[in-house]
DNA sequence: ATATCCATGTAATGCGTTACATGATTTG
DNA sequence: CAAATCATGTAACGCATTACATGGATAT
């Protein structure tokens, strides 16, 4: 049910077509909340039905229109309410940890491969998150720029700060994952002897 | 689809009834992979149908039986295969970060309340995870004890080490969450002035 | 004109959640 | 004998995923 709040949050910056929203979910917001097109379009229509957003038909080319959605007063209220309500923390479902717990059933080489992938994955993610954080802090990112234009200058600092703070959480988490992966590789070396994948120099 | 592998992993320690499995998901395994009864019983039957596990009827009281499941050779093969295959990392869907990114829409007091809950939640979890890690390292936990009995002594070290390592990942992650929450509270103080909830001593 | 973007979906399936439901057995 | 535990589900619903599908508009 958070998809709808992600959409509402997006729409507080500027009106968007479904396609615009899909684009956002491919980039910025998508780093925090993933959603495919097939979920976004129907959700927007449902939200319009409930009065949280309003669609207006905009000319697009000579023979066509597109729907541009804006958030309504009720939409803002719903977003606020959601932000102020306590989140029910979802029970854990952690594939990486589950797999690691049973590494004795995989070969050491495949356990290593697993951890290397873990490290690579989070290294890449951390890179992205750091870039996003920078783009937010410098107000370069188009969607943050549009947002700042819409709100008075005294709000800018906090708008930026909270978004950067969110990314800092992702970065910290990612770095913890990388650390964990490295300790895992060391652990495997201790338990099973060092990897045979690399030759000993000087032997 | 990981539920079935969690079940297979459990069954490598000892045969279990559905109810036993449900119990495990309420405790040990449940800290890593959550599943409700309503998912476990049907999944066990499906797995039996696919030959990954075998159910045998065991007397239970004078007029009743229960089904005790054991892992089959094919089940072990399936578990190994899953452990050795690369995990497709699921796209992110992070409610805490999403909410934090839009804290300017909540009041400062409700943003603080949010972060306090975040800190409390992870503090509690970290406590549990640390206890579990200890219980594993000392081989006190009943399910780890049963497991160790079944495998030769030279396997014990790695069986324990990998499970402890998994919990260490959770602990590290939890601690990063707590840290993040604290920095968030500081950030709110900076942006909005300190909380009015507490009086200034000496004023 | 052709490729790439812009725009918008439907359909099938599966995993997971919540709520509801029942009865036997052991333990105190 | 009453309470707690053991045992095993069904049913309805909703969110999410994957695959499939189409056509107009703009840029080169």
From TrEMBL, chains A, B:
<dbReference type="InterPro" id="IPR005149">
    <property type="entry name" value="Tscrpt_reg_PadR_N"/>
</dbReference>
<protein>
    <submittedName>
        <fullName>PadR family transcriptional regulator</fullName>
    </submittedName>
</protein>
<feature type="domain" description="Transcription regulator PadR N-terminal">
    <location>
        <begin position="7"/>
        <end position="81"/>
    </location>
</feature>
<dbReference type="InterPro" id="IPR036388">
    <property type="entry name" value="WH-like_DNA-bd_sf"/>
</dbReference>
<dbReference type="InterPro" id="IPR036390">
    <property type="entry name" value="WH_DNA-bd_sf"/>
</dbReference>
<dbReference type="Pfam" id="PF03551">
    <property type="entry name" value="PadR"/>
</dbReference>
């Amino acid at each position: 049910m958070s998809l709808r709040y992600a959409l509402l949050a997006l729409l507080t910056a500027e009106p968007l077509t479904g396609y615009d929203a899909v684009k956002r979910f491919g980039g910025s917001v998508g780093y925090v909340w993933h959603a495919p097109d097939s979920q976004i379009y129907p959700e927007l229509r449902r939200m319009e039905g409930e009065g949280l957003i309003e669609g207006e038909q905009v000319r697009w080319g000579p023979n066509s229109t597109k729907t541009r959605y804006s958030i309504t007063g009720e939409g803002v209220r719903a977003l606020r309410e959601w932000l102020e309500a306590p989140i029910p923390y979802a029970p854990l479902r952690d594939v990486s940890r589950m797999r690691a717990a049973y590494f004795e059933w995989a070969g050491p080489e495949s356990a290593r491969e697993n951890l290397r992938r873990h490290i690579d994955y989070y290294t890449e993610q951390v890179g992205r998150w750091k870039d996003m954080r920078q783009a937010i802090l410098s107000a370069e990112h188009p969607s943050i720029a549009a947002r700042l234009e819409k709100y008075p200058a005294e709000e800018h600092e906090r708008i930026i700060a909270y978004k950067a703070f969110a990314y800092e959480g992702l970065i910290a988490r990612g770095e913890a994952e990388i650390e964990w992966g490295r300790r895992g590789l060391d652990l495997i070396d201790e338990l099973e002897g060092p990897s045979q994948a690399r030759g000993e120099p000087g032997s």
